[in-house]
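Hi all, posting the design record for the shared folder.

TITLE: backbone redesign
STEP: 1 of 1
STRUCTURE INPUT:
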C-alpha cells in the first residue's frame, strides 16, 4: 500500500513534467533530493536512508537502514535482534549487522507529504525557469515569429509554442504601430532577465538596429553568404534608417544587391518596418567620406572634424543644401552623426558676391532675442538670420529644444529684418 502511495505521488507530477519539457532523469533526480530533504527535516539526518529511483519504471522506493545492537539508543537508526526478527521473520542476523526495511510514505504524515508535493513542484518550476532562460539566452539576437496573445497600453504579450511569455514593451515598438490579438509579428530577441526569481522576462524589439540587420540577412542572400558585410546600422524607428554595407568582391555592387531589382528586396523590409525610409550606402573607414555619403542627397562643401574626438563636427553646405542635409526633424543629420559616432553641426556656407552678403549674423539680434535662444540656434548650425529662415519652424523647435511660440517670435523678428 505504501509503495502504491509513492508511485501515486510521482504520477501526480507526470503531466506537469511532460508539459514543462523536463526530461525524466532530471525529474527523478529532483524527486530523490526532495525525499532526502524531507527525511532530514523529519528525523534530523538522512544518512541512514537510501532513496532508489527507477528512471525506466518511474518508481521510487525509500529504505531505512538500521544497525543491529543489543540496546537501542536511537530508534531511527538502531534495532535489536528481536525487533529485526519480528519485522523480517528472519533470524539469520547478528549484532553489528545492518538491516534495511522499506520506509512507508505514510510515516511522513499528511503534513510531510504535502511538503514533499510543494517542494517537488517548486524545484521543477525552478528547473523550468532555468531551461527557458537558457533557451532564449542562446537565441538573443535572433528573429522571433509569434502570435499576439494580449495587448496593453505599455506592452504586447506573445506566447510561444510552450506557453512561455515574451514581451514587446512600448518603447520597443515602432511608433504608430497598432497590434490586435492573433496578429502575427516579427521581432528580434533583445534580452532575457530574471526579475525577483520569477519567470524569465523575455524582451523582443522591433526598434533595434539589429532587427533591421537580421531582416537584411533574410532578404539578401549575398549578406547571408558573407559576400556583403553590414558594417553598421543606425535608426530613428519609424522615420529613417541608414545601412552601411561593404563588399569584398569587386564584381558585386553591395548597394544594388541590397535594394534588388526595382527595389524588390528592400521593399519587403520597408513594409515590415511600417514604411520606414531606408538609405543603403557604401561603407568607408574615412569618416569624412562616410559623412558625405550619409548626407546624400545634400551636397557637402567641406567638413571640419575638429581637434579631438569629442569636438563637434562642422559640416558646411550651400544655403540651398542645408534643408536636405538636415532632413525632416533633423533626422538625416542625426543618423549621419550616429553612423560616425560624432555629433554633427550643419553650417551654412556664405558665398561672397551674391545675395548672401545681405545676410545678417544672429549675434546682431542680441538686443531683440535672448542670448540663450541665440546660443541654441547657433548650436544647431544656424549662425545667420537666413540660415534660420531656411529651416521649417517645427524642425527648429525639435532640434534646438525650443518652444513653438519662441521659434515663432524669432522668425518674426528675423523676417522683419529683410522686409522693405
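Okay, here is what came back for every position:
SEQUENCE:
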Amino acid at each position: 500500500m505504501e509503495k502504491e502511495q509513492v508511485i501515486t505521488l510521482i504520477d501526480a507530477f507526470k503531466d506537469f513534467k511532460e508539459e514543462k519539457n523536463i526530461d525524466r532523469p532530471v525529474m527523478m533526480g529532483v524527486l530523490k533530493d526532495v525525499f532526502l530533504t524531507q527525511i532530514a527535516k523529519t528525523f534530523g539526518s538522512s544518512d541512514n536512508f537510501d532513496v532508489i529511483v527507477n528512471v525506466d519504471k518511474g518508481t521510487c522506493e525509500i529504505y531505512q537502514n538500521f544497525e543491529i545492537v543489543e540496546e537501542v539508543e536511537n530508534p531511527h537508526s538502531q534495532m535489536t535482534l528481536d525487533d529485526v526478527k519480528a519485522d523480517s521473520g528472519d533470524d539469520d542476523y547478528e549484532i553489528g549487522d545492518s538491516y534495511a526495511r522499506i520506509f512507508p510514505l505514510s510515516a511522513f504524515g499528511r503534513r510531510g507529504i504535502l511538503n514533499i508535493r510543494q517542494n517537488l513542484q517548486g524545484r521543477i518550476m525552478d528547473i523550468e525557469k532555468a531551461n527557458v532562460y537558457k533557451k532564449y539566452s542562446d537565441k538573443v539576437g535572433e528573429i522571433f515569429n509569434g502570435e499576439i496573445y494580449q495587448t496593453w497600453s505599455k506592452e504586447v504579450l506573445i506566447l510561444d509554442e510552450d506557453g512561455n511569455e515574451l514581451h514587446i514593451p512600448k518603447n520597443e515598438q515602432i511608433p504608430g504601430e497598432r497590434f490586435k490579438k492573433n496578429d502575427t509579428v516579427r521581432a528580434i530577441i533583445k534580452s532575457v532577465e530574471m526579475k525577483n526569481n520569477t519567470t524569465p522576462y523575455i524582451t523582443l524589439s522591433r526598434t533595434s538596429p539589429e532587427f533591421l540587420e537580421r531582416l537584411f540577412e533574410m532578404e539578401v542572400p549575398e549578406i547571408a553568404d558573407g559576400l556583403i558585410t553590414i558594417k553598421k546600422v543606425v535608426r530613428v524607428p519609424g522615420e529613417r534608417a541608414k545601412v552601411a554595407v561593404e563588399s569584398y568582391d569587386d564584381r558585386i555592387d553591395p548597394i544594388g544587391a541590397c535594394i534588388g531589382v526595382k527595389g524588390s528586396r528592400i521593399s519587403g523590409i520597408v513594409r515590415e518596418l511600417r514604411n520606414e525610409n531606408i538609405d543603403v550606402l557604401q561603407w568607408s573607414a574615412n569618416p569624412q567620406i562616410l559623412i558625405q555619403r550619409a548626407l546624400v542627397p545634400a551636397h557637402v562643401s567641406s567638413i571640419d572634424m575638429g581637434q579631438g574626438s569629442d569636438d563637434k563636427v562642422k559640416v558646411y553646405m550651400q544655403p540651398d543644401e542645408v534643408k536636405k542635409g538636415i532632413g525632416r526633424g533633423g533626422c538625416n543629420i542625426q543618423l549621419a552623426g550616429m553612423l560616425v559616432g560624432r555629433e554633427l553641426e550643419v553650417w551654412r556656407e556664405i558665398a561672397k558676391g551674391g545675395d548672401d552678403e545681405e545676410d545678417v549674423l544672429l549675434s546682431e539680434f542680441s538686443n531683440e532675442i535672448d542670448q540663450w535662444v541665440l546660443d541654441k540656434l547657433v548650436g544647431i548650425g544656424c549662425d545667420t538670420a537666413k540660415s534660420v529662415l531656411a529651416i521649417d519652424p517645427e524642425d527648429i523647435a525639435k532640434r534646438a529644444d525650443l518652444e513653438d511660440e519662441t521659434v515663432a517670435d524669432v522668425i518674426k523678428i528675423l523676417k522683419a529684418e529683410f522686409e522693405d
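COMMENT: The domain at 284-349 is CATH 3.30.300.20 (GMP Synthetase; Chain A, domain 3).
Let me know if anyone wants the other runs.
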